Amino acid sequence: MKTHTCPPDHTLWAQHLVAPAADGGAAPWQPMLSPAEAARVQRHQDRLMAALQAHDRVALLCAKQEVLADVYCPGSAGGAPAATSSTALRCALRDLSWRMAGLLLPRRSHH
């Protein structure tokens, strides 16, 4: 059984999100996240991964719902109002919502 391990620094993904592109600059269609926005996306991912690692179906469902609420109903889940959400944040959260769709825990068999 393969277990998922977190890297020692839980902010690696957030750092990646705010780093300039490898070619020296972000493409015009790829707006940059602020450090606060990257940390917000990172918190969502950390919750998803923690629930997945704990094999907690309820926590995983709740974490997924929080991401969806933050993406499609800004302000309802404690997120920033739609007027202050940047395009980059909305894109990153939307991308995370697509990626999390594949995060599933198997149902326990009753055999």
Description:
The protein has 111 residues and is mainly alpha-helical. Helix content is 50%, strand content 0%. The protein has 4 helices and no strands. Helix 1 runs antiparallel to helix 2 and helix 3 packs antiparallel against helix 4 (87-100). The longest helix is centred in the middle third of the chain and has 19 residues, at 35-53.
Task: Draw up the topology in text.
Layout: H1 12-18, H2 35-53, H3 57-72, H4 87-100
CA gyration radius, whole angstroms: 15 Å
Q: Which structural category fits the helices and strands?
A: mainly alpha
Ranges where pLDDT stays below 50 over 5 or more residues in a row are: 1-8
Order of helices and strands: HHHH
Number of strands: 0
Q: Main β-sheet, in a few words? A: none
What is the helix content?
A: 40-55%
> How much is the average pLDDT?
74
End-to-end span in angstroms? 20 Å
Rough outline: globular
Total number of helices: 4
Beta-strand fraction estimate? under 5%
